[in-house]
Design goal:
Blueprint (H helix, E strand, L loop, with lengths): L29 H8 L5 E2 L5 E2 L4 H8 L12 E5 L5 E3 L3 E4 L2 E4 L3 E9 L3 E22 L5 E13 L4 E6 L19 E5 L3 E5 L2 E6 L3 E5 L2 E5 L2 E6 L4 E3 L2 E5 L2 E6 L4 E3 L9 E5 L2 E6 L4 E3 L2 E5 L2 E6 L16 E3 L2 E4 L3 E6 L4 E3 L2 E4 L3 E6 L4 E9 L3 E6 L4 E17 L4 E3 L22 E13 L4 E3 L2 E12 L9 E3 L3 E12 L15 E10 L3 E4 L5 E5 L5 E7 L8 E6 L2 E6 L4 E2 L52
Parallel strand pairs: 3-7, 6-8, 7-8, 8-9, 8-10, 9-11, 9-12, 10-13, 11-14, 12-15, 13-16, 14-17, 15-18, 16-19, 17-20, 18-21, 19-22, 20-23, 21-24, 22-25, 23-26, 24-27, 25-28, 26-29, 27-30, 28-31, 29-32, 30-32, 31-33, 32-34, 33-34, 34-35, 34-36, 35-37, 36-38, 37-39, 38-40, 41-47
Antiparallel strand pairs: 1-2, 3-4, 5-6, 40-44, 41-44, 42-43, 42-45, 45-46
Length: 625
């Protein structure tokens, strides 16, 4: 939405980001291995264009076989019991219901204990911990604490259900714990690389703060995990990989996190063919760097859902990748009190099915938001799709917005300097480019709002815009050019703009004295229908463009219950009535130029002022003087 004589101040960082990393490995340093290949999956050229090429590393992850069962031949067996804990083999010690594993190797844990714990203290050694119907509860600290190891694999035996439960508060009384560093602070806490695998099930109940935390890399492969946590659900600080997993998270804070913000190659989340369900008080998924999803099924309710509001300084977004989000495929159900999909960098959507309801933006990128395919159904939003630039090259997109449907470098959400203020920098590179796909917009603000240029070169765009004159179905500050595709934009006549004279495809703007909800249709001289659209609410102004409109021909436009004959003496027919750029004058029913000379005795209001007795239209703020 743009306001008369407003001044816009933006802040945007300029970052080109790439990323995808591989699956499970026995490398000495999983985080370093993945960081080395994360730069190859998504490529930005000098123009900022994003391509969706997947690198060999991702293909390798997609083709990995199911995790093989663990060889139990030499396993140390630990049998839990409230009466007696039995250890069969070497490498584990028992002190006051605390079992400490001090050597690398394979350990099988079965049985139950009501108040005990398991500690892994095996420096520079690999440990495989196999759980088979094991249940460990601890009243005052983490029941499973991986203090040190080269890497620990937690393997869940087939058909087993395993449970970890902590209590509150933590005591930090033993030599492995630090109250100052708050280590541990999760029911399952690891200070080294952690892999959770197998076809069994793990229940984690974080009654103190967090559910599962790894301070290095966390990988979940094939396992089924249910986490309930007072604060955050699952954290892999350096990186988090989920492949073929089934994960359910109920968290008071963030659901799934990667939190390393000190190294720009870390802090990534990659999900492949995973079923993830999150109910979170804060962000559903939060990657400090890049979020990448290929396939699977993701269901997120963040911050209580789209009927709730987020307090200043809080974040309850659905999918958040601070430096970039790349969604290659999958099914997504996002119900969010904040932006449903949010990045301070780029967002790329190539395939998938998205059902979105948000109290803020449906899709928000501080840099480029690009859609090349998929089905996106934004059922509720403040603004539908927003970015410093927006590229739509494909897909089937439906948007319902309280403000603008598609917005470039404007609008007002909670990601910027105050309530509903965006973090965009002032500049001339902002644009909306529509080159393919089918887009249907129902907006109470501007249908398409480019605080820069608007270009349509293909696809279909249908807009049911605002019913008040403070907004336009099409709104732009720079140039608007159409060279292909079909556009029917209906709304109020006060601010509507037509395409400009640099267009190579004809465009017609018509205004009507009365509003209507009647279907809009354009026909050629032979009576053939060239394009049609039934708006979702009343309108009294319409912009129509389609490839068949040519200079010298006459067309019949049926709209607002009327039939109007239009002869194209120029490619652009009808004057813009908006505040920005505008189309070249032509014949027809276009509204008067906003800079026309006023009648004798009428004074033009001073800049930023309104005439005495006048109030701004509904949803429009009075500009500052």
């Amino acid at each position: 939405m743009k306001y008369s004589e407003r001044k816009i101040s933006f802040l945007i960082c300029s970052m080109i980001l790439t990323g995808v990393f591989s699956g499970c490995s026995n490398s000495k340093d999983l985080a370093s291995e993945e960081a080395a290949i994360i730069k190859d999956a998504v490529v930005s050229d000098d123009s900022g264009d994003i391509t969706a090429d997947k690198n060999a590393a991702l293909q390798e992850v997609l083709s990995e076989e199911t995790v093989l069962p663990v060889d139990m031949t030499d396993a140390v067996r630990i049998t839990l019991s409230n009466e007696k804990i039995d250890i069969s083999g070497n490498g584990a010690e028992l002190h006051d219901n605390a079992i400490t594993i001090t050597r690398g190797g394979t350990y099988l844990v079965t049985g139950e204990i009501a108040d005990g714990r398991l500690i892994i203290d095996a420096e520079d050694e690999e440990v495989t911990l196999v759980l088979e119907n094991a249940a460990i509860s601890c009243s005052d600290t983490s029941p499973l604490y991986i203090y040190q190891s080269k890497m620990t694999t937690l393997y869940l035996m087939e058909n087993s259900i395993n449970t970890l439960t902590d209590g509150s508060p933590y005591s930090f009384a033993d030599s492995y714990s630090s109250e100052e560093e708050e280590e541990p602070n999760a029911c399952l806490y690891s200070k080294s690389d952690l892999v959770i695998a197998g076809s069994g099930e793990l229940e984690v109940n974080g009654e103190y703060k967090n559910g599962i935390t790894s301070k290095d890399t966390l990988k979940i492969k094939s396992a089924k995990i249910n986490v309930k946590a007072i604060n955050h659900g699952i954290t892999g600080k350096d990186s988090c990989v989920l492949k073929d997993a089934d994960v359910n998270i109920d968290a008071g804070g963030d659901g799934l996190r990667a939190t390393n913000d000190k190294d720009d190659s870390l802090g990534n989340i990659v999900m492949v063919d995973t079923v993830l369900k999150v109910d979170s008080g804060e962000d559903g998924i939060q990657a400090e760097n890049t979020l990448i999803i290929q396939g699977g099924n993701v269901t997120i309710c963040s911050g209580g859902g789209n009927t709730q509001s987020v307090a200043d300084g809080n974040s309850a977004k659905g999918l958040k990748g601070i430096n970039g989000i790349y969604l290659y495929d999958g099914t997504f159900q996002l119900d969010c009190a904040d932006d449903a999909v949010h990045s301070n960098g780029n967002i790329l959507i190539t395939e998938g099915e998205y059902t979105i309801s948000s109290a803020d933006d449906g899709i928000h990128a501080d840099q480029n938001a690009k859609v090349t395919g998929g089905t996106i159904d934004i059922q509720k939003s403040y603004e539908g799709i927003e970015g410093a630039s927006v590229d739509i090259a494909g897909g089937n997109i439906s948007i319902v917005a309280d403000d603008d449907g598609i917005n470039a470098a404007g609008g007002a959400d909670q990601s910027g300097f105050g309530p509903r203020q965006d973090a965009f920098a002032e500049g001339s590179d902002y644009y909306i480019l529509i080159s393919g796909g089918k887009i249907v917009v129902d907006a109470d603000g501007d249908g398409v709002d480019a605080n820069g240029s608007l270009t349509v070169s293909g696809g279909e765009l249908y807009i049911s815009g605002s019913t008040n004159d403070g907004n336009g179905a099409l709104d732009y500050d720079g140039k608007a050019v159409i060279t292909g595709g079909t556009v029917i934009a209906a709304g109020a006549s006060g601010m509507t703009q037509n395409f400009g004279e640099e267009s190579t495809q004809g465009s017609i703007l018509l205004s009507f004295p009365e509003s209507s909800e009647e279907e809009i249709c354009i026909k050629d001289e032979a009576g053939n229908t060239l394009a049609s659209y039934a708006p979702m609410k009343s309108y009294n102004c319409v912009v129509i463009s389609c490839p068949s409109i040519a200079v010298g021909n006459t067309y019949t436009v049926e709209a607002c219950g009327q039939s109007v004959s239009v002869t194209m003496s120029n490619l652009i027919y009808g004057n813009s009535s908006g505040m920005g750029g505008g189309g070249r004058k032509g014949g027809g029913m276009g509204r008067p130029d906003v800079n026309m000379e006023l009648p004798e005795g009428m004074e033009r209001p001073e800049k930023g002022e309104m005439r005495e007795g006048m109030e701004p239209p509904e949803r429009m703020e009075r500009p500052e003087k």
